[in-house]
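ok so i was messing around last nite and threw this chain in just to see what happens. nothing serious, just curious
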Amino acid sequence: MTSLKYLITTALFFGLLSSYAQIDDREQGLFYKIGIATTLALNENYEVFNKDDDELLLKINALFINNTLGYRFSTKTSIGLNLEANFHPEPFNRFYPAFLDFRYNIIDKDDNGFIRFGYGVLMHNSKLNRGTLYKIGLGGEYFLENSNKSILFGIDFMRKRFGYRQENKLSSVSLFLELIF
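result:
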């Protein structure tokens, strides 16, 4: 629970910092980003023609909440410091990664298409030892009308390594939605 308090405090700090660090254009400057992502799995209890059943075909397999403080170098490149909370319900595991990510816009027009890479550490939690995180993603950025805010959406592949000698691995593919201020 103390890790969750730490994460919330950090998010509020970055939120306040971003209000003073607004960029005037899309070319360079500080930014704050908040996002949510999820992995989906097939529901084994789903029956196709059973109308009495409230089961859905897909179920949420994990939930990720991300906060980023970053710097945009140009219209093509940016770097960010990320603090994230990962919740995996089956089996119930929580991870708190802190990582750096690099984003490169492959398509640099009114709206962008990008690829991003991330590497960092899993902060200690009571059940698991520290570990590492690797991330690669592909997505798009849509700028909101008459503002510097944008929405990012796409897909990420993430691998977490943890445990004794980091021999335990957890890989996931997630869909993300993020908002840049």
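not much to say yet. Confidence is low (pLDDT under 50) at residues 18-24.
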